[in-house]
Amino acid sequence: MGVAEKIKEIEEEMRRTQKNKATEYHLGLLKGKLARLRAQLLEPQPGDKSSGGGSGFDVSKSGDARIALVGFPSVGKSTLLSKITKTKSEVAAYAFTTLTAIPGVMEYGGAEIQILDLPGIIEGASEGKGRGRQVISAAKTSDLIMMVLDATKKVEQRVLLEAELEAVGIRLNKQPPNIYLKAKKTGGVKITFMAASKHLDERMITGVLRDYKILNAEVLVRDENANVDDFIDVINAQHRRYIPCLYVYNKIDCISLPYLDQLAREPHTAVMSCELDLGINDVIDEAWKELNLLRIYTKRKGVAPDFSEALIVRQNSTISDVCDRIHRTLKEHFKYALVWGASARHVPQRVGLSHPVADEDVVSIVTK
Ligand SMILES: Nc1nc2c(ncn2[C@@H]2O[C@H](COP(=O)(O)OP(=O)(O)OP(=O)(O)O)[C@@H](O)[C@H]2O)c(=O)[nH]1
Ligand SMILES: [K+]
Ligand SMILES: [Mg+2]
């Protein structure tokens, strides 16, 4: 029996099994097996270069971040790319207009963001239907997934897409589980719970580990809410990607106002109409927020700041990180910095290396 058939069989058994306290352990083991088989499916097959699990489209990363446009056919991914970048990607009313990854560059306040237009995917994509596997592999390399949805279609489209991404190890808007796992050579399995766990116990953990042939390990469960899915994610950490996701509903020109209002209130969601040029800027602003990056503009003494080029740092960065981005040895000569912007209490504020910066701050470094 091939891996794909084994997966089908387990999925079937899980569907047949009623969910209750008595079957919890059995279901947990099945989930572990399923994740193990899916990981096998993602390993590149010998002699299989293009459709192989691991490989996406051959587009090199560029700029400060990459956003992947993922969605069913004809939801308007290429229309959006053509609107927000200088790249033109073919747009048409029929499904699978886009057949490969089309990169474009979006300028955003001095930041350069690569936008990847991708072929539409369909249910079964994670098992390799259509270009599904390649599309998902490309999505896995992105810093943000923009899930483009057709506001006129059923809400289930979103759940279906999420399940496809989930199946290949993408976790949307989620932090890695707070569980420590280290395989050992000897000593058996040692499990410590930092607090009484609501969903995990020793039997479940050792049972799943045994299926992965891990017989010696140290496990530390730090989160009382962690469940067996989280534990399986930790075992399969090398195949997991935790990626922020912005749900973008397009074609709002075709839906009612109350429904539009309802969609717009969902978390991590933005709504737009490429046709009427509505909401596009909000989509871009929201995407920038989800990326968790900060734009810092540098200023030389006596000269106006240069807003055409931003230094990009991660959220929670400090002046120290900004210095590192400017030059490797700048900190050695650092005296103080002047900051204008949201992070400054008064402008300009004189600060040290540990001062946390905010998006769109203007920073001037004064050296000894
Ligand atoms: N009503 C309406 N139609 C739109 C909107 N945006 C795009 N469309 C139409 O939707 C159709 C599909 O657009 P595409 O951009 O080709 O969609 P896609 O997601 O790239 O499709 P594939 O590449 O085939 O996966 C085209 O006929 C567009 O003109 C919109 O905001 N409102
Ligand atoms: K299309
Ligand atoms: Mg397209």
Automatic annotation (TrEMBL):
The keyword Amino-acid biosynthesis does not apply. InterPro entries: Beta-grasp_dom_sf, DRG, G_OBG, GTP-bd, GTP-binding_2, GTP1-OBG_CS, P-loop_NTPase, Small_GTP-bd. GO terms for molecular function: GTP binding; GTPase activity. PROSITE patterns: G_OBG (PS51710), GTP1_OBG (PS00905), TGS (PS51880). Gene3D superfamilies: 3.10.20.30, P-loop containing nucleotide triphosphate hydrolases. Residues 65-292 form the OBG-type G domain. Keywords: GTP-binding, Hydrolase, Nucleotide-binding. Pfam families: MMR_HSR1, MMR_HSR1_Xtn, TGS. Residues 292-367 form the TGS domain. The keyword Ubl conjugation does not apply. One of its GO terms (biological process) is positive regulation of cellular response to amino acid starvation. This is P-loop containing nucleoside triphosphate hydrolase protein.
